[in-house]
Design goal:
The complex is a heterodimer of chains A (112) and B (119).
Chain A (H helix, E strand, L loop, with lengths): L3 E4 L2 E4 L5 E7 L5 E8 L3 E10 L2 E4 L6 E7 L2 E6 L8 E9 L4 E4 L3 E5 L1
Chain B lengths: L2 E3 L4 E5 L4 E3 L2 E3 L5 E8 L6 E7 L6 E3 L2 E6 L4 E6 L8 E9 L10 E3 L3 E6 L1
Parallel strand pairs in B: 2-12
Antiparallel strand pairs in B: 1-4, 3-9, 5-6, 5-10, 7-8, 8-9, 10-11, 10-12
The chains are: A mainly beta (112), B mainly beta (119).
Chain lengths: 112, 119
């Protein structure tokens, strides 16, 4: 197991409230990613990080921000949640040795 | 820009049938990696295979086989003698190789093919 955990696993929040999702890894991987999964769209990249304090936008970054102050944690924040951000969010890490991507178990977020 | 197309949205077969899931990709890079992931109804993403762009050998793992053809930019996945447990959404994905200047190495996904295997 690559040692990647996401929290919370499920969350229901109200429109307009801030929400932070956490991705934690235990294996010191440099690259971390946040994806969202929606029916008919597959997985789409929100933001990614290639080191502490080094982050960049993916294809669906509007309305999201990220932070990485420690190697092991990559936080995704919805500044003001909207119903369109109801989705399943996956975090991933990239193994630089075997060049594989490992995904967390996902966070199901519902914005009401 | 990278792109992955899985033209088959849903496929339904009867147990023991063979089924092929298509994947076509686009990239300008000469070095890249291709992946297949399985997402069963429980929701987790399960890694199945990684193939780099320099290795066009087909691969077989039990009932699973993969056909990589650079000439047609395809990386198709075949399940032989399908079983009910194969029912899942299957994703094909593409990643650029590592770049010395700190390339993103983004993993780009197709939209997935939902496979239903009926008893």
């Amino acid at each position: 197991d690559a040692g990647i955990t996401q929290s919370p696993r499920h969350k229901v929040t109200e429109t307009g409230t801030p929400v932070t999702l956490r991705c934690h890894q235990t294996e010191n991987h440099r690259y971390m990613y946040w994806y969202r999964q929606d029916p008919g769209h597959g997985l789409r990249l929100i933001h990614y990080s290639y080191g502490v304090k080094d982050t960049d936008k993916g294809e669906v970054s509007d309305g999201y921000s990220v932070s990485r102050s420690k190697t092991e944690d990559f936080l995704l924040t919805l500044e003001s949640a909207t119903s369109s951000q109801t989705s399943v969010y996956f975090c991933a890490i990239r193994d630089t040795v075997f060049y594989g991507y490992t995904f967390g178990s996902g966070t199901r977020l519902t914005v009401v | 820009a990278q792109k992955v197309t899985q033209a088959q949205t849903e496929i339904s077969v009867v147990e023991k049938e063979d089924v092929t899931l298509d994947c076509v990709y686009e990239t300008r890079d000469t070095t890249y990696y291709l992946f297949w992931y399985k997402q069963p109804p429980s929701g987790e993403l399960v890694f199945l295979i990684r193939r780099n762009s320099f290795d066009e050998q087909n691969e077989i793992s039990g009932r699973y086989s993969w056909n990589f053809q650079k000439s047609t930019s395809s990386f198709n996945f075949t399940i032989t003698a399908s079983q009910v447990v194969d029912s899942a959404v299957y994703f094909c994905a593409l990643s650029e190789a590592q770049r010395a200047q700190g390339g993103s190495e983004k993993l780009v996904f197709g939209k997935g093919t939902k496979l239903t295997v009926n008893p």
